Amino acid sequence: MRAAVLHEIGQEKLEVLDDVEAVGFGPGKVRVRVRATGLCHSDLSAMNGVLPQPAPFVPGHEGAGEILDVGDGVRHLKPGDRVVLCWLPACGACPACKRGQTQLCLAGFMNAGTPNFRRSGGAVFGFAGTGTFAEEVVVDAGCAVPIPEDVPFDIAALIGCGVTTGLGAALNTADVTAGSSVAVIGCGGVGISAVQGARLKGAAEIVAVDPVASRRESALTFGATRAVSPEELADAKQQVTGGEGFDYVFEVVGRSATARTAYDATRRGGTLVVVGAGAMDDFLQLTMFELFFDEKRILPSMYGGGDVLRSYERTIALWRAGRVDLAGLITHRVPLAGINEALDQMRTGTALRTCIEI
Length: 358
Hints:
The protein has 12 helices and 19 strands. The protein is an alpha/beta fold.
């Protein structure tokens, strides 16, 4: 089968090969024919080494498709079922799951150390235990979540990561209050989803911050009340909040410099929500005095900060009701053979989300 492979960490291009085999099928597993997958910035971060990932590997973790086969013991799925792939399935038994913090379950991370694919030259890993830049993937049955017939594969793929992460940051982690002021720093697919979440919660002012003009323009169509470049954030803070700072600021870039900017843009007693996935050696510096004196809440948001399966259901319900725009997030489409074009679109910021049709 075909799959896009990164041979070494740090390479900028993927090689689309036709000699890759999905492996690991057996009890408790399912084989999925991937139909659509989104390109998430985390895929780039894994390729350049910001996020730890053994190589060679097949990137991609935001996918949807249909079940081809199920292993022994799998009773809730059957061949032909339509599914979205969840890269962080909950085991239901660990302390985090028992506390109801299923998004913090580490069971899914254990899959990242087991190869999902094989070539004649040896084992190939799948990013985040999945690897959706491939025609087929074998995953634990818990990673394959059934979706209704009316949800297209491209929409379902977005729900698998970016939309759930952004919406959840606003709805679950921050629990934005009606009438509040919000700033979202970084307006790709995840940031735009955070904008939509803040709009759903009734925020009065939503300022979208991004260096790319086309993304700023898009943010206005998704619910932002104004859109500014990073250099214009200080002026927006003055104009919208009288210089006090925003009630909520979402950092959706994953860099300490932007997190520091977001902290400074948050009012005293306000809330900074860290959504972007950053590097392990990128340290955010804050003084002990400002932590005490400003009393700003700093809330990291992992995969939307709530039960992932419930978040999927909620997002589908909101999409059906026309309360969130998911189709509009897909600004570009390419076949698997054009995956490097999609990478360029992500790097330059010309795309909110590129759908890779497989």
